[in-house]
What does this fold into?
Amino acid sequence: MRFVLAIVAFVVAAVMIVAGIAQRTVFAPPTRIEAATSVSGDPRYLVVDGSVLNAHPGQQTLTVTGAPDSAKQVVAYGRTADVKAWLEGQKYVAVGFQTATGKLTTKSVTGKPAAGHSEGDSGSGSGATATPAPTPSAAATTDPSAAASPSTTADTAQVSGPNPAGSDLWLEEFDGQAAQVTRMNIPDDVSVIVASDGQKAAPSKVAVTWPVDSSTPWAFPLIIGGLILLVIGIALYLWGLYTHRRSRGPRRKSGPKMPKLPKAPKYKPTAMIETTPKGRRSTRRARVMLPAALVGALALTGCTAGTDAATTPSKTSTPLTTEAPSGKGQLPPAVTVPQLERIVKRISESAAQADAQASADLAKVRFVGPALQLREANYAIRAKKADEPALPAIPASPIVLSLPQATDAWPRTVAAVIQSPKDAKGTAQAPIALTLVQATPRDNYQVEYAVSLEPKAKVPNLAPASIGSAVVPPDSKLLALPPSKVAAAYGDILMNGDASTFAKQFNAEGDTLRTQVGAEWKAKQKAAVPATASLAFATAPGTGTDVAMATNDSGAIVWTDLQETQTLKVVEAGAEVSAGVTAAALTGAASSKTGIESTFGYQLAFYVPPAGSDAKITLLGFAQGMIAAKQIP
It folds into this structure.
């Protein structure tokens, strides 16, 4: 019997070991699922929707090949609505997924105008240098590898378009060889755009790969169990062999058998024992037996009742829900934090290049409005005045505060506060607050305001960057002062000081600009002018856009532009006034016999409390400088 059990153990062990090894080798499941397609017609753009990439669970791997120039191929992804807005008016191939066959499909599409973007707009705002738009090429490059497949549609027209490389709209971008194989894990509302430089055809072959769970949980237990059973079989075999050898020794003959013992008579109860006793003793026994039976029955009943109670559901109070409100219908933030970090880094590099060369043309790449106006004037002054200090550099990082606008239309506004590094002497410098504006989907973000924060400035509570903030209309009456009137009111304070009608609405504590160029400073400047000349000051709102973004307390942070004109006029015939070194650099004349008119620009950032609040309007930061000068005719 032991030999039989050993053989069975050997057979079962062999089967288990072979089955375990086969699961890891011959019958091993695939490690990935792949769907691929080829595109014909040399289209300039391919768009892979997020639903295609999420056709199977797991991290997606996108492989693109067949580009005419692999060094110029681009793979980027962004929100689907943003990708389609960027492709407005452009023909592209939409890559889909057919669930029944598990293959990719292609379809030629012409981009439609984005919401909040005029249909006739080509995508470049005034004064904005967006993603460079290439010029049409005479002949389109045809890739021999871009053969038509059954899933492709009609050929797409070979028309050059804008270059997607370097656009601030993308959440992530891969260029050149890095774009050939990209791993991502994006949601359904994000799409991928594949292109070259807009002039040449996009990569013609696209493949998407998903990982598959190829684990074999039974392989290891089968192999280990088979080895254990093999050891047991060997033990049984050795035991049987040992017993068999012992049983082969000499045997003795047995003696006569012992006689069988007589059987004992069967027990038969007598009538006296079987008779049930009667009387009081019998009653006592019955009483004793009845409670015992009841206890047993109750015990059994109790067990059954306990089982029913455990399996029968009982009503409980409904717990209060503490889940966050659904984000359905909520507008997305204009940018994500990683996206903003990349944008600020690009702006910092562009600004450093423009500042180093004092080039107004380079400054126009990333500056617009009051920020550009101040930099252009600074470059002009530095060209004539060597000791004129440059404007504060735009640091690349770290971003200590980000406030994107919650919107899906254009223009878009984003505010960011960046910590400035220490200067050469190790002195801490004020953080730089930027107001960035994106005019159209194809424009990059540009700096409209760049101010240095006040030392005692306290930024109010703001919405988190993952939610974003709403833009307050310039004429909103829900604030202590409409954003469009803040510049004029503050200008009146700079002119008249505490005598201004708006003085009580503004906080004077910590306002260093009022100390530098306020009413007291102006009075001293007028007193220093000789009798042969006169000095007059005037303020007016600048040409910049008033930008207001809501805070959590129903107030707003307002960025505005104020211009102050200083008119130094000759009042006595034959007299002459000095223009000053800075004004002379802009006018080209060191003195004038008529007068000099200098214009200073003030970029201002305020916190404006809600209407009815006891809080005052507070200056958070500013930037100032001469922006123009001319001789009085």
User: Anything to note?
Assistant: The longest strand covers residues 556-570. The two ends are 126 Å apart (CA to CA).
